[in-house]
Design a protein that fits this description.
46% helix, 7 helices, elongated
Length: 183
């Protein structure tokens, strides 16, 4: 990730698309709504930075306008931890989607997940109630959080591995393959 090609260009684009007319207040109107992966890492940010792999769309909550593409470095210039969390979550889920499409193994570790990504999946209703989670998706979410937190992955039992695999295959993978926010 490089530096922003031109912060003033970014600042001007954000202010022009905002209700507020000052950077400090305009940046509060925005949220990250989607990500796309450029197939050849040749995307170009609204600031002018080139060679983007991850291109985000941000939307203005106050007026409905969007800006695309925005690089993660420019999102970081907003100085908002919630936006940084959104780009991290979208990036993780895009990695899960890409692995699912290619048939690569998806593991319950930091290569594919984070606590924030699991929380996002729960908030999105991915862990639907069923007989295996006693009719409460929170139980699946809680289980995956615990498994994610296990430092020695060899300590995870075969039964726990089976449950992790089923949750990834039957709940998480269908979600990431169909969520339009994941380019």
């Amino acid at each position: 990730m490089g530096t922003t090609a031109n912060f003033q260009v970014l600042r001007h684009a954000v202010i022009d698309a905002s209700v507020a007319d000052r950077w400090k207040t305009a940046l509060l109107e925005w949220e990250v709504i989607s990500v796309e992966e450029h197939p050849t890492s040749e995307g170009e940010c609204v600031c002018g930075q080139t060679n983007l792999l991850w291109m985000y769309t941000i939307a203005n909550d106050a007026n409905g306008r969007t800006l695309f593409p925005i690089g993660s470095t420019c999102v970081n210039h907003f100085g908002r931890t919630d936006l940084n969390r959104q780009i991290t979550v979208f990036r993780k889920l895009l990695l899960v989607r890409d692995a699912a499409k290619s048939g690569s193994p998806i593991t319950m570790d930091t290569n594919f997940f984070s606590r924030a990504a699991l929380s996002f999946l729960y908030e999105e209703g991915v862990f639907t109630p069923d007989a295996y989670n006693f009719g409460d998706g929170w139980n699946d979410y809680d289980f995956l959080l615990k498994m994610f937190g296990v430092r020695d992955k060899d300590a995870i039992t075969s039964k726990q591995r089976w449950k992790i695999r089923k949750l990834i295959d039957l709940k998480i993978t269908p979600f990431v393959l169909t969520d339009s926010r994941l380019g």
